[in-house]
Amino acid sequence: MDETVAEYIRRTVVKTPRDEIKTMLQKWGFLSETQLQTINFHQIKENISRDVVQLCEENSADIKQAAALDIIYNHIYPNKRMWSVYQMSKRGEETDFFDVTDFKKKFKRRLRSALKNVTINFREYEDDAVWIRIAWGTPYTKPNQYKTSYVVYHSQTPYVFISVSVLKSNLPLLCQALVAASNYHDIREMELRSHSLNSLKDIVFKRYSQNFQTYYPKPLQERNIALESADLRIVQENRNEKERILRVNKEVFGDGPQPKLEFAQYKLETMFKSDPEMNVLDKKEPFRCVVKFSSPHLLESLKSLAPAGMADAPLSPLLTCIPQKARNYFKIRERKGFFPGSFVSP
């Protein structure tokens, strides 16, 4: 077994939590149950990794098996990587039968026609997801197995989830191969990024239920003028206001936890409003800007603004529409306010 393969397998085992190493190796399937029973999984991870490498040497493991183990590791721990969402589109409404074997052949052929030194590995999962691992090289160097890109493609949807390596210059080649292999015409980034792959899937696959634009201002309850103490009135008013904020927040964001989104961006086109007689603007052109949001947990951060007293309730639709906009890519026109424009998909 090559020393590079042995070291890669060793590192994959070491970075896995000790209590989960055996489960991961069982999913890998390269080592038999009899071989796994010879390993003491209660010892330190360095010793476990040494025993695993020794067994892999007996089975003559190569880079293909090492890459398969890496795919399993990333499937179990997808939050170790940063993921971006891409959407593919076709010219018409035609639908093609998806053949995973044909997809793999086209993807490899297209990518290797542009770059010879590249290793490509696939693994299929039950949710119609094809996981692709790409290790990039250069015209003069072998593929670097520690600087890999990952693609998760759900064959029944136009969405692709990509985690690029530090070699971002290869991203156009990767996108071209995806479009050619899946029989689509174009691909574009949706400007949604997160370490939580499942949260991104919940948003674009509409598995996340959120109430939008359901809040309508309700008249405040009449204050109890019978209260004799001003302090009691203040306490009661504060309590009522907190209850109102929590109720409104629930109507806007729903009951459950929010998907873990870390980055969102959209483009805004809007017209300035001014008195026609003042003639402030000579040209009737829209004002254009790019709005970016980033946070370790963007949607939960927005949800906490009003209860924390940092924003009025309900929040502006400019803030609460992010998941909905990402899913539908439609234009939202405001009826009132200073920004009667529309959101334009990036």
TrEMBL record:
Nucleus recorded as keyword: yes
| Annotated protein name in UniProt | Centromere protein N
Q: Cellular location of this protein?
A: Chromosome, Centromere; Nucleus
Please state which protein family the record places this protein in: Belongs to the CENP-N/CHL4 family.
Per the record, the domain of life is: Eukaryota
Naming one, the record's GO cellular component terms include: chromosome, centromeric region
Upper lineage is: Eukaryota, Metazoa, Chordata, Craniata, Vertebrata
Which controlled-vocabulary keywords does the entry list? Centromere, Chromosome, Nucleus
- Any Pfam family from its record, for instance, is CENP-N
